[in-house]
Amino acid sequence: MTLSRRRAAALLALAFGVVLLGACARLPPAPALGALAPEFRLQDQKGEWHRLADYRGQWVVLYFYPKDQTPGCTTQACEVRDNIFAFRKAGAVVLGVSVDDVASHKEFAEKHSLPFPLLADSTKQTAAAYGVLVKMLGVFELAQRDTFIIDPTGHIAKHFVKVDPKGHSERVLAELKTLGSQPAATAVPAPTTGG
Questions:
Q1: pTM
Q2: Catalytic residue set
Q3: Which of 73, 112, 178, 194 is 20–30 Å from 141 (CA)?
Q4: Does residue 194 fall inside a structural domain?
């Protein structure tokens, strides 16, 4: 191997390492189970405003995803779409959130006939408040693919971290069924250590 090829290989390895480190950069942690869910005020794909407080008294499935029109995000959104009646039967409203803008959400929702709000967090404040804002490639900030189930009193009942989009909708529905049979705000207690 020539010196220039070794140098190129070393630079490539270094760049790959920087990408991996950048992909792991994360802002403050997510709210704890049982904590009051951070409030937000965001526009959906139709330009309508939504606040978390608007959904008090209902279960809320707040799912964060990285980017409209990408394969994983499309899989996840279409599975939610296909299960929307099951979510409604469980008494839950579904809200998708990414850092894309309203126009991007509108195109994504129309293309895939998504019957639930996609909220535009262009300022990235909501993703940061929920601890899901990550830096990709050390430059781009996107929402990590996490889902929060928020109970009717506005508390975090469940947090799914770095989810696999395939089949996730079914897992959330199963968890809603379990949580629905437990008292709100204490549905999923924080783990304890015992001895």
A1: 0.79
A2: 73
A3: 112
A4: no
